[in-house]
Amino acid sequence: MILYPAIDLKDGAAVRLLRGDMEKATVFNTDPAAQALSFVEAGCQWLHLVDLNGAFEGKPVNAVAVEAILKRCDVPAQLGGGIRDMATIENWIDCGLARVILGTVAVEDPSLVKQAAREFPGQVAVGIDARNGKVATRGWAEETDVSATELAKSFEDAGVAAIIYTDINRDGAMEGPNVETTMELANAVSIPVIASGGVSSLADLKALRDCGAKLDGAISGRALYDGALDLAEAIKLLNE
What we know:
- The protein is built from 11 helices and 12 strands.
- Helix content is 37%, strand content 29%.
- It has helices at 32-41, 52-57, 63-72, 86-94, 104-108, 110-119, 148-153, 179-188, 202-209, 222-226, 231-239; strands at residues 2-10, 13-18, 21-29, 47-51, 77-80, 99-102, 124-131, 134-137, 142-147, 162-167, 193-196, 217-220.
- It has a single domain (2-239), classed as TIM Barrel, CATH 3.20.20.70.
- By secondary structure, the protein is an alpha/beta fold.
- An 8-stranded parallel barrel has the order 1-4-5-6-7-10-11-12, surrounded by 6 helices.
């Protein structure tokens, strides 16, 4: 399993939200590139970036911060938030992004996801963000009746590189991941699944690692900033 340190970008700064609420943002670093570099120096293999403003506005907003991270860090990075057309996907990949994460369009325009996966093999992931099992879109502001598992299954043969599954109710709450639901989703598809939301301790990572589903990785944010989870220790655990 790979541990993906999360850098959520709001108004140019690295922040963490509580359960996706933009009004409940804590600023952890006004220099996201420096924050990313500290994660790299601690040994991370990937970076997970989210353009929070972009997720709400439907277009890239924190591009300057993302580009600064890509220039300063020599590990691959994946980015989600506001990526909703082929031109934006192509632009980000040309900028050096290793993987784009498509969330809202996975519900609203699944054909775009499939086209992108064909044109950029290995570089397109689907972000599935769910509240009580149902997918939420547009920065988690809009609820749908779409089941997270059914959405994942619909991309089974599309060639997507990974599914990033986030339990919104756990995100930023430091209450541990929803292991059972994550395991069920991962066992329902052959696509690699990355767990997100609530990962806040070594025990959480052990629970995901040993849950009975082969997870590709886990994302952690607030716990790394708060010091509840030591990145180097976490990476060592997952490499055992």
